[in-house]
Amino acid sequence: MRNHHIMRTLALALALLLVSSFLVATAQTSYQTEYKSTFSGNITSMNPYTTEALSDYMFIANLIDGLVETDIYGRPVPSLALSWESSEDKSVWTFKLRPDVYWVDAEGNKTEYQVTAEDFVSGLRYVADPKNTASNFSTIRGVIAGLYDYYKLLAAIDDGEDKGMTREEAERSFDETVGVKALDELTVQYTLSASYPFFLSFAQLDLLLPVKQAFLDQVGKDFGTGRDKLLYNGGYYISQWDLDKQLTFSKNPHYWDLDKLTLDTLSWEYVSDGVSRLEMFQRGNVTSTSLTSEEVASIRGTEWENYVYLSEKTATTYWFSFNFATRNPEAAAAMHNVDFRKAVFTAIDAVTISAIWEPEDPEFFTRYTLLPENTMFDPDGVDYTDYPALQPYKGQDPFDEEAARALMKNAVLSLCEADGVTLKGVEACQVDMLPIADFKVDGKLPIDLVFSSGSSETEMKKAALVKEMLETYLGKEYINVILGHSTSSFSADVLDRGNWDLYDDSYGFRYADPSANMNRLISEYDITESSYQVPEFDAMVQEANSKTDIKERYALFSQAEAWMIREAYVKPYMTGGGSYNMTRIVPFTEPGGYFGMSRYKMKGALIQETPVTARQHLELQQAHEAQRALLAQEP
Fold first, then answer.
1. Is there a contact between 102 and 225 (Cβ–Cβ < 8 Å)?
2. Paired sense of beta strands 34-39 and 68-70, if any
3. How far is CA 526 from CA 100, 277, 514, 543, in A?
4. For the whole model, what pTM was predicted?
5. Beta strands 288-291 and 570-577: pairing type?
């Protein structure tokens, strides 16, 4: 205990030292009151429930507040909800709202509409109607009791099925069916389908934002299509919206947390795709910018080099997966062999692939667990990815050319007839994977394997590397990689048609529990569209979902994740984020975290007159991480 106290004291001292050095260095700094950015496509809607692009999230997060937000360390703190409580089994959550919070209009004037519990009920009612096509509805459909049943009922009626009632009658069943209730004017309660001790991360999502029903009825289908077709309860309102010119947000003078708004204006200027954001940043026309590796190289040796830093990794993970429903009989036979799957994944060098984006420090991007580090901690402050089952994978590069070759040889022994060349049960045929590939297989070694990718420069480089790695490390006598590139829509050309044997994609992480992605990997959900059947994994996930004790839950989920990686159904290899950036925003002055809308808010942001130096960013990052580690240890 004494050693633990000493370590906490030393860590706190380090954090305070770093913070104080920053405060001294910036004591004379003046801050700007306008955030400036750009957009390149027409913005036709600000409907908070149909957001898709990251820019949409930034818009909505600064216009409409929800129940909960996060502090700079990513911890949930009150927003429109002053307080909350849950039942002992964490299946019922009750939120008490702030009194005297009002919606404002497109002129920043306070309306007659107070933010009430019924607004949150109306928001979920809107999301639950399939006609409104809410984005990412699958994230919460099984969480709130009755929500998915209500959605499916309306969808079935819309499809012409006879459900013994009209659509209007079905709509009136919402209050009885769906687990959300306004207990009084300022108390909203959610009844969940099971125990959700992590429900606060759901409470930060766009899908649980409020809406005033009377206003929604007034604007109808035009909701969100113009600045006067929205009401605002967040830090800002839309004061200018010219579709192909300018977008401006102005400070909401009636905001409940007005003292925390450090910026008066958020503005976006329309620019064409060919305009250099680097040059705009250098002129002071934008607050922040990301840079390509070529742009970084172009400013090396100039003063601007001092302002370049690598952004933090995100919770997004990239992984490879197989298509068990492929029309390619050679690959179909091979990928059901675990040694073949392991051979392929062991032969893929993640560090070399990562170097496409970060040639100087390629290991920075690598991640070898499906779920991200530094996002989920148990009551003892232990990171989910540090649980014993994941220790063989976290930070452990699985690339091993000798092991890959040995695994491939073992696979061939099982896959081939006595002649060592003919694949068991595979007949010669023509394989049609148009528009990306069309080829003939002969049922003999080498195994033809189609790797499908996009057609951007980086995607083409990655595909060429995958082909070279597999054929070099596994042997061209054993495998022949056919590259297929989608020239239009990857979903339409590849995923929808099953035109792939192997591909990779990125997978986000929507809420603070392993189930966020583990539930999406079960056979029934199959987020990778692999068409696999993994009953053992399904059972492990089901058992983990049944546990409410966080430590027990994490232990079981980590075992399920380890099984999925060990059996080589998926191969995690790289993180999202980590791009080169320059900014005038003082790091870690905005809300933090990996989930929900708060991380897109500009609330509290400090914008320097001069760009943040790489050294300043590093010192603040060290202080922030030290303080966050201390907070994670608090009881």
1. no
2. unpaired
3. 45, 39, 16, 18
4. 0.82
5. unpaired
Task: For 228-257, write each residue's pLDDT tens digit.
Answer: 999 999 999 999 999 778 999 999 999 999
Residue 407 CB coordination number (10 Å): 24
Determine the 3-state secondary structure of 374 from DSSP.
Answer: coil
| Each residue's pLDDT tens digit, 76-113 | 999 999 999 999 999 999 999 999 999 999 999 999 99
- The DSSP bridge pattern shows strands 607-608 and 31-32 to be antiparallel
Determine if residue 533 is left, alpha or beta; phi over 0 gives left, psi from -120 to 50 gives alpha, anything else beta: beta
Label each residue of 88-155 as H, E or C.
CCCCEEEEEECCCCEEECCCCCEEEEECCHHHHHHHHHHHCCHHHCCCCHHHCCCCECCHHHHHHHHH
β-bridge pairing 580-583 and 288-291: antiparallel
Q: How many CA atoms lie within 13 A of 238 on its CB side?
A: 25
Residues 6+ apart with CB under 8 A from 41: none
Judge contact between 600 and 344, C-beta under 8 A: no
CA–CA gap between residue 49 and residue 120 (Å, rounded): 13
Measured CA to CA, the distance from residue 245 to residue 247 in angstroms comes to 7
CA 171 – CA 177 distance, rounded (Å): 10
Q: Compute the distance between CA of residue 212 and CA of residue 25 in angstroms, rounded to an integer.
A: 46
Q: What is the mean pLDDT of residues 129-155?
A: 94
* Cα–Cα distance measured from residue 42 to residue 245, given in angstroms and rounded to the nearest whole number: 9
- Tell me if 182 sits within 8 A of 117, measured CB to CB: yes
Q: How far apart are CA 97 and CA 289, in angstroms?
A: 37
CA distance 441 to 328: 8
CA atoms of 100 and 216, how far apart (whole Å) = 21
What whole-number distance in Å separates Cα of residue 74 and Cα of residue 84?
Answer: 18
Nearest to 370 by CA among 393, 350, 347: 393
Contact yes or no for 591/70 (Cβ under 8 A): yes
Residue environment code for 1-39, b if the CB has 16+ CB neighbours within 10 A, otherwise e: eeeeeeeeeebeebbeebbeebeeebeeeebbeebbbbb
Q: Shortest CA distance to 236 belongs to which of 631, 545, 516, 601?
A: 601
Q: Is 72 left (phi over 0), alpha (psi -120 to 50) or beta?
A: alpha
